[in-house]
Amino acid sequence: MASLPIPEVEEIEAIYGLEGRVNLIGEHIDYEGYGVLPMAIRQDTIVAIRRGGDKLVVANLEAEQYPEIEFGTDPAQALDVAKHTWANYFLSAYKGVFQHLQSKGIAAPSPVGLQVMVHGTVPLGSGLSSSAAIVCSSSLAIAAVLGVAGSLTKGDVSEFTCTAERHVGVTSGGMDQAISVMGMPGVAMLVEFNPVRATDVQLPAGATFVIANSMAVSKKAETADRRYNLRVVECRLAAMLLAVALGKPPGEAAAVTTLKQVEPAIIDKYGPGAEAQAKAVRELLHEGVYMPAEVEGLLQRPLASIYEGNASALRVLGVVGPEGFRLRDRALHVYSEAGRVYGFRDVCKSDAAAEDKLSQLGSLMDASHASCAGLYECSCAELDALVGAARAAGALGARLTGAGWGGCTVSLVREADAPRFIAALREQYYAPLVAQGVVKEEDLGECLFASKPSSGAALMKLKLASLEQPAEAPTQPAAAPAEQEAVMYEI
Q1: How much is the pTM?
Q2: CB of 136 within 8 A of CB of 181?
């Protein structure tokens, strides 16, 4: 055995790494055009890639859980959203790169076979942007190996990866992709849209955030028609009906796509600010359920015609039942949550004492969770229990983070109190789950941890030496092995 040659180490052409993110405040409002306030965290997703073969071969280091999958190289191929697989996120990225190049008039290289290995420490379904981390890191790795990464800006990548991820069947809003690419160490980011831009937000001294996984998996893509995409549809319907109530003809109102687009008309009649928006919503949208027939009557056209060509929305319309649409509640959440985002930013920028800032930020986070749970109905029993345990353990504020319906919470804690807080959550929330076999004691460090803001995307290019061991011992001193080359830079 010792005389066998050492296998040649082939070149890995590009490795891209992207951190996950935790959204501190601003849930379910990015797709409505409003700014959000996330930070990147230390958990990341790594994509290694090289050219080879005539297929897209997508593998994962955790092969038992995420088996290897092959696709053709045609960028125009459709994704099978009815049969969701983890590798669909890579394929959506592949399509997205070619579509972006085409939209910019950049000559795209001929498709080639790619061999891909993915590894991530961002838990899937945790609400920490695991899907966006895969899509963004895959997009950048694909662009690098195809030789077109140099033409991309951070804004480009944030925008086209948001569009690309929608190929898997979820109408994502852009926050996850933006912070994955634009995150900077030491600061949270106010991410705004149209165009995508990010502004540093310096967090108060003495603050840290503890992320805790409820262990309820949020299957965002698989449940989109009755959860995430349903909320997107409800928000647009609310926006259209508000536009009609504020005097816009139904034909013009049917072209409204976000609640932010209605804001100028609300300001004209009710004045600026979240309180004025809430007053408008309460006066112009009734409580309870809107059924499709009522909405169609107010808009004077079938909903299917409004959403013509929008496959995800049409799927939602195809499954909506007697629960109908809760338009008033959804609009109240969006407008109030948008106000909390800028309130959070303003507190961080204020001259108040650090302790006062922490108290105010905690109150905003608590109000956000109440709105997500009550008005937007995107919480679940496990998240509510974990938020309650966090507050009992001394959190200054706690809320669900991410799309919800499972996943993680984020708690604001004094940095000096973080070890005691984590120990209390281990005892109060996780000890029973360990006893039930839901999670192993040794894995709790990945389920419950404190985090400061981390960095965004980085590229590493590796050129590894080809090494061979001769069958017989050499009679002359061996030459020094070829030098390994590694380069890392931020996009």
Answers
A1: 0.76
A2: yes
How far is Cα 100 from Cα 143, in angstroms, rounded to an integer? Answer: 11
- Whether 176 is a known active-site residue: answer yes
Catalytic member of 30, 44, 176, 366: 176
The answer to whether the CB of 36 falls within 8 A of the CB of 175 is yes
CA distance 60 to 98: 23
What is the full DSSP assignment across 224-266?
A: GGGTHHHHHHHHHHHHHHHHHHTT--HHHHTT---GGGGHHHH
Residue from 339, 353, 389 nearest 210 by CA: 389
Amino acid symbol at 459:
L
Strand partners, 38: 23
Token code pair at residue 412: 């604001």
Of the candidates 167, 165, 169, the one whose C-alpha atom is nearest the C-alpha of residue 221 is 169
- H or E stretch covering 57: strand 56-60
CA gap 53, 368 in Å, rounded:
49
Q: Which has the closest alpha carbon to 33: 164, 195, 155?
A: 195
Helices (H), 352-472: 354-374, 381-392, 418-425, 431-436, 444-447
Q: pLDDT digit of tens for each residue in the chain (491 aa)?
A: 232 232 333 455 555 555 566 889 999 999 999 999 988 776 677 888 888 899 999 998 888 888 899 999 998 888 877 777 888 888 888 888 898 888 888 888 899 999 988 887 665 554 455 677 788 888 888 888 888 877 777 778 777 877 777 776 666 656 666 666 676 777 888 988 888 788 899 999 999 999 999 999 877 566 778 898 999 999 999 999 999 999 999 999 999 999 999 999 999 999 999 999 999 999 999 999 999 999 999 999 999 999 999 988 999 999 998 889 999 999 999 999 999 999 999 999 999 999 999 999 999 999 999 999 999 999 999 999 999 999 999 999 999 998 899 999 999 999 999 999 999 999 999 999 999 999 999 989 888 999 877 655 555 555 544 444 444 444 444 443 333 333 232 33
User: Between vectors from CA 409 to CA 156 and to CA 406, what angle results, nearest 5°?
Assistant: 85
